[in-house]
Design brief:
- There is one protein chain.
- This protein has two domains: about 1-30, no CATH class; about 60-275, Collagenase (Catalytic Domain).
- It is about 35% helix and about 20% strand.
- The protein is of the alpha/beta class.
- The chain is built from ten helices and nine strands.
- The protein is globular, with a radius of gyration of 23 Å.
């Protein structure tokens, strides 16, 4: 049943027109219908969980304090790229909220890599990361390490990540997750600043290094199916609808994990930032 509609005749063709729109100009009327169809099409194609609930791997060394009571974040960058200070501040807030590191979190902006050393393919990127990583203090003294590499581009991604077990397999002794931030894809759009986009990408890729999203009960292809989660895959009609006004007026982008993702990381869904 359709409420608020009544039949109308336009140029000999009968169709349903919302009663409160019949006096509107045809162009505005069609524009509103187009927006409604766009949103309905997006809702109809929302990703669905790919299976039943299952145990999800989590990186205990980075998340917990039992094996590592501190975290070192090493940042290297290809010439022509530069971490945005505001993005790093926002990301540091997320790190303090989601990890239990009573020994502290240290960020070191380290080497500048010559542009001709960077080759945008998976094997070359990981090989380069192994060669330029130089900060070993945390790993040598009972801490965990997160390695971030800023580069211009890699395929069509804004960011990419390799979890710690993957990197350990490819390089003995590396023992760190690798996050790749592609700054050529992070340009400011009106008041949606590049810094906000960068912080959102850092949080999203960091989530992948922690083990998100491996639970098929709320995941598909490694991403969360909850559109309000930082681990959701990209921007579509659902995220446009949910974040239209926050993004329009404040430049807001999601930088938090949903309850389902928190449950994958913490059984009680309570991260360290809520326990303090």
């Amino acid at each position: 049943m359709i409420l608020g509609l009544e039949a109308g005749r336009v140029q000999g063709t009968e169709r349903c027109i919302p009663a409160n729109l019949r006096r509107m100009a045809p162009s505005r009327h069609l524009g509103l219908l187009a927006v409604a169809l766009f949103l309905c099409a997006g809702c109809a194609s929302l990703p669905r969980p790919s299976g039943p609930e299952a145990p999800a791997w989590r990186d205990e060394r980075v998340l917990d304090s039992t094996d590592a009571d501190r975290l070192l974040v090493e940042i290297d960058r290809v010439a022509g790229t530069e971490p945005r200070p505001r993005a790093l501040r926002l990301f540091m807030e997320r790190l303090r909220f989601y990890t239990d590191k009573p020994g502290g979190i240290e960020v070191v902006v380290d080497d500048v890599i010559a542009a001709d050393r960077y080759e945008p393919d998976s094997i070359s990127i990981r090989r380069l990361a192994r060669r330029v990583r130089s900060q070993r203090r945390a790993g040598q003294s009972g801490g965990a390490t997160l390695h971030i590499l800023y580069a211009p581009e890699y395929l069509r991604y804004r960011g990419y990540a390799w979890a710690r077990p993957v990197m350990v397999k490819t390089a003995a002794g590396y023992d760190a997750a690798l996050v790749l931030v592609l700054q050529d894809r992070l340009r400011s759009i009106l008041w949606i600043t590049g810094a906000r986009q960068e912080a959102s990408v850092l949080t999203h890729e960091f989530g992948h290094t922690l083990g998100l999203v491996n639970d098929p009960s709320h995941g598909m292809n490694g991403h969360c199916t909850n559109a309000w989660c930082s681990m959701y895959d990209g921007v579509d009609a659902a995220t446009a609808f949910l974040y239209f006004f926050p993004t329009l007026f404040t430049g807001y982008l999601p930088v938090s994990f949903c309850g389902d993702c928190l449950a994958d990381l913490y059984p009680d869904r309570v991260p360290p930032g809520r326990r303090r």
